[in-house]
Design a protein that fits this description.
The chain is an alpha/beta fold. About 25% of the residues lie in helices and about 20% in strands. Strands 1, 2, 3, 4 and 5 form a five-stranded mixed beta sheet that branches. A hairpin with a 2-residue loop joins β2 and β3.
Amino acid sequence: GAWMQQVPDATLITDLFLPGTHDSAAMHGGDFAQCQAWSIEDQLKCGIRCFDIRLRQVGDALCAHHGVVYQQRNFGSIVNAMESFLESRPSEVLLVRISGDGCNHDSKRDFKEHVLSVVGERSRWAKLGADLGESPLAEL
């Protein structure tokens, strides 16, 4: 859905209660690592707007992980799913927490630079790393 279109643009992000998920991409690993039954795409369709994306660098790939369990999804496909959703629903805003889970495997790349290389010049990701505490929705 596009429920955020009902929220006035002047509303501060700190005045909202946004639905979100913990370890949003963790769909695999059973009792040991699975936190979600819905894909990122299904979470978006059901109204989730805050995401906790945990990644590991494996060579040149940024892979979704929960602990040691690979979640069978790379960061690029998560970004593409979110971009596609926002393209068809311009009134919506997503807050995405991206963490490196403290493990780089065999990568020598800087984690933040690696993340930025995946999102590229996409304007929707321009506030990556910014403090949004007093931002109105119209600025996001």
